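Translate structure to sequence.
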């Protein structure tokens, strides 16, 4: 596709794939964007239009690209053959494998998102990652558990990213072990919640009581 024919969304996606290579050396900066725009073949002025929010918008686009790669690596038919714990583990690992070659870019991205003025954006991106993973895992909950699942997985994913940054083991084995322990924690929480979930048949229901008065159980 000719660069002049690209929409801003398409241009943002193309630049997002190139940016982490340069952000590792130049940070999430104008210099990195200039290098990425030259690689993609668009003028810097045009590339700037794709990221009006500067560094945070660049990081946002990169994380969206990680979402895309994760979804392509684990299509629904492949996930369907797994149990829920294996699905979540595979989805997080797919993300880790995608960002692993760009650890310095990731380190710089997380440092930017940790700044007070960017905490809200960082929280939103963490939530989006967790939501994408639960969605691909087949979660269709709409009650309170919809939010608790995402908050819990988002926290686990964030901690696992930090573990990855300092992992010098072969094939980031230490991070994989860390993730396994955290996923086990999530599964235990979900099991406890399932056991504590109120059973409507064990609670007094005025409507059920009146119905039984009208239609006695034989």
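Result:
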């Amino acid at each position: 596709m000719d660069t002049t024919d690209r929409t801003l969304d398409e241009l943002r996606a193309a630049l997002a794939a190139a940016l982490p290579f340069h952000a590792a050396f130049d940070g999430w900066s104008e210099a990195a964007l200039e290098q990425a725009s030259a690689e993609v073949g668009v003028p810097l002025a045009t590339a700037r239009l794709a990221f009006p929010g500067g560094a945070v918008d660049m990081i946002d686009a990169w994380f969206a690209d990680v979402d895309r790669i994760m979804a392509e690596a684990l299509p629904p038919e492949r996930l369907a053959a797994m149990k829920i714990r294996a699905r979540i583990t595979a989805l997080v690992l797919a993300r880790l494998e995608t960002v692993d070659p760009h650890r310095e870019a990731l380190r710089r991205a997380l440092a930017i998102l940790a700044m007070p003025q960017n905490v809200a954006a960082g929280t939103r991106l963490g939530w989006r990652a967790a939501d994408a993973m639960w969605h691909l895992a087949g979660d269709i909950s709409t009650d309170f558990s919809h939010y608790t699942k995402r908050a819990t997985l988002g926290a686990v994913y964030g901690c696992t990213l930090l573990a990855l940054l300092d992992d010098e083991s072969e094939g980031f084995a230490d991070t994989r072990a860390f993730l396994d322990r955290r996923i086990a924690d999530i599964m235990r929480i979900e099991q406890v919640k399932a056991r504590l979930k109120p059973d409507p048949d064990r609670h007094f229901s005025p409507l059920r009581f009146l119905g039984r008065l009208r239609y006695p159980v034989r």
